[in-house]
Amino acid sequence: MRMLIKILIVLVILAGGAAAAYKPMAESWAKRNKILWRTATVEQGDIISVVNSTGTVKPKLRVVIGSFVSGPIKELFCDFNQEIKVGDLMATVDPTIYQANVFRDEASIASREADVFRVKAQLQQAINDEKRAIALRTEDETFIAQAEMDKFKFARLSLDAQLKVAETGVAQAQGTLENSQANLNYTKIRSPVDGIVIERKIDPGQTVAASFQTPELFIVAPDMRKEMHIHASVDEADIGWIKLAQQKKYPVTFTVDAYPEKLFDGTILAIRLAATTTQNVVTYPVVVSAANPDLDLLPSMTASLSFQVDHRDDVVKIPNAALRFYPSAKQVRPADIPILEGQAQANPNDEQGEAQQSEKSLSAQERAQLRKDRNRRHVWVAEGDLLRAVEVTTGLSDSQFTELVTGQLQKGDVLVTGVQAPATGPPR
User: CB neighbours of 84 closer than 8 A, spacing ≥ 6?
Assistant: First the structure.
């Protein structure tokens, strides 16, 4: 009996100790397993929306300089990267054959001119003979028969025709001489523009043949210090924004790999209609103009462009991470579970094929309304141990923030963006 009493006393003491320790242990366990949220703050400021693309740097104009005549290259007077002016001598083709043609044609024209002089002398003699015959016949018709008079007349007419033929021969020889002189001048390759030689395709001694097509000797890029063009490919989904940016004259910024820390500025020069389709992706070429006073931009460089397409000044903006966060049902208030279920149905983490199939089944009007409704979103605010949903309507976005159009949020509000990972390692 006494032993039973002792056991009961021990049990009562143990039960009291356990009861006294339960509350601290429960609080410690709850604190240890409490969810810690990652958060971000609602801010106020400017939002600049951009469309990113890549492009290739090209000269404003590429002038291909060729040879009109054939022959070996005798001399070169310019090289790669050399700046030249209009009329500068760049190269010469061996002029031996063309100089000989000029000498030949000069001799030919001299011969034709001598023939004209000979025919003129004969014509003058025929004219004089005819005049004397007419004078004699005037004194007495029996002195010269009519048949003889016809001979004098038609001899004069024949020589008159020969003179015209000879004079035409002189003109023809003059044309041939001018052609030969032009070919001789073409042996000197001169620059038609001011610019920089970006490519040289010949070497001294190389023979060029211009029989069927003009051979390319040099490529000159004019005004490279004034302006360069960047040819970018923009997706068809963004081309509407690019057209709006061109109308509003928004700036374009870009970088090149050669100067990764230097930011270049440009303007949209043209949106070309020659679309390109690659694996069902349609892109349009957009030409951007940029100044190049230091010749930092070189042909064929790859540029990473950002087209400013819209902006908002001094607006309340929501962190994009808060818009991407989707809590589980056990983390939110019971009243907000239906909202969460509605978001889950539209969760972009669903299989892409099913989402595309669902949208394809809608009419054009329904698709437009669906895309409009996507701007109505929910963000989450910590309220005790659970989360409360706040409905918002969003507007313009950049890489970090999205404009708040409507919603019960203001600058400084703290939004949940995720769950913090539990601490690892043994407790200290």
Answer: 78, 90, 191, 194, 195, 196, 197, 220
